[in-house]
Amino acid sequence: MRSTGPVIRVAILADTHGSLDARVEALVAESDLAVHGGDIGNAGVLERLRPRQGRVIAVSGNNDSPGKWPPEQRYLLDNLREQEGLELPGGKLAIIHGHQIAARNRHERLRRRFPHARAIVYGHSHRLIADRDHEPWVLNPGAAGRARTFGGPSCMVLDAAEHRWELRIERFQSLKRQG
Q1: Which of 45, 90, 122, 146 is close enough to 98 for a disulfide, judged by CB 3.0 to 4.6 Å?
Q2: Local confidence band at 175 (pLDDT 50, 70, 90 cut-offs)
Q3: Do the beta carbons of residue 118 and residue 136 sit within 8 Å?
Q4: Strand order in the sheet with 154-161
Q5: Which domains does the chain have, with CATH numbers?
Q6: Is-contact 136 119, C-beta < 8 A?
Q7: pLDDT tens per residue across span 98-124
C-alpha cells in the first residue's frame, strides 16, 4: 500500500573522521536531508553534504573537539550540539553520537533516553546496525569515511512518510589505496 502525503528521504551517516566516501556523498545528493551522527572531522565533510533541500543536521562526536579540528575551522564546532531532533512525516528522529551512553545495553539505554522518537541515530562504534525489533528503532549507519569501516564505508537512507518508514542500508566495498 502506497503512502499518501509527503515522503522525505533522509541520508543518515556518521563517523567520517574528515573523509567522506564519494559514493555516500552521491546518496546524500539524491536525498532531501542529511543527518550526520558525529565525529565529522572537519568542515570539508559538512561542505560536501549537499542534499536536495540543503539541510544538514549534525551532532558533535567525541572527536569533534577543538584540538582535533583544523584551527581555522574550530569556530564551526560552536554550532554543533550534543543531540538533535528532527520532525519527519510519521515521527521524530533523535540524533546523538553515542559516546555519552555506556556500550553495555546501549540500545536499551537509548530507547529509555528517547522514548518519544520513532527512530534514534547514533554513531561512535563504527558498526553498521539497524535494530528494528522494537520502537524506537536504533540505527547506527557505520562509518562513512575510511576509518574503521568494518567491511567498507556505509550509510542508511530513510524514506519517511506519515504511515510508513522504509530504511535502506548501503555498504560499499573498501577502495584499494594507490601508491
Answers
A1: 122
A2: confident
A3: yes
A4: 55-58, 33-36, 8-13, 154-161, 164-171
A5: 8-171 (3.60.21.10)
A6: yes
A7: 999 999 999 999 999 999 999 999 999
